[in-house]
Amino acid sequence: MASKMIFINLPVAELERSKSFYEALGWKVNQQYTDGNAACIVVDDNICLMLLSKDFFTSFTDRAIGDARTTVNSLYAVSLASPAEVDTLVDAAVAAGGTEEVNADKRAQETQVGMHGRTFIDPDGHQWEPFHMAYPGAN
Description:
The chain has helices spanning 15-24, 54-57, 83-95, 104-112, and strands at 6-12, 28-30, 38-44, 47-53, 75-79, 99-101, 115-117, 119-121, 127-133. Strands 5, 6, 7, 8 and 9 form a 5-stranded mixed beta sheet that branches. It folds into 2 domains: 1-59, 2,3-Dihydroxybiphenyl 1,2-Dioxygenase, domain 1, CATH 3.10.180; 72-139, 2,3-Dihydroxybiphenyl 1,2-Dioxygenase, domain 1, CATH 3.10.180. The chain is α+β, with helices and mostly antiparallel strands. It has 4 helices and 9 strands. The two termini are 29 Å apart. The radius of gyration is 16 Å and the shape is globular.
């Protein structure tokens, strides 16, 4: 097991719909940590999403849950190995019921630094920023 992992806890309106959405992206459900209240989605060996029904999510905090469809509190950026992987992931997200957000100014800035990125919004309004960056000296 890795010494450090990141678990991103996301409140979701419909757990089964959200599980299906992320499975359509090629990410796997870890059944060991999945039940009627939550689903563990494995992005890679060190990153997991915990999809939590809104009722269950509220058991972790006294603060109100924001509506991710109307306000932004976080952007989830994921570095991928190639521009093709970025395109494949976003295309899968859109095909699975997500929406793509296109920001021409952001894309122009990314192009200047050798970066290829796109943005998708999941069915609950969570914003994802998959990207590939050609680092200096990288093959």
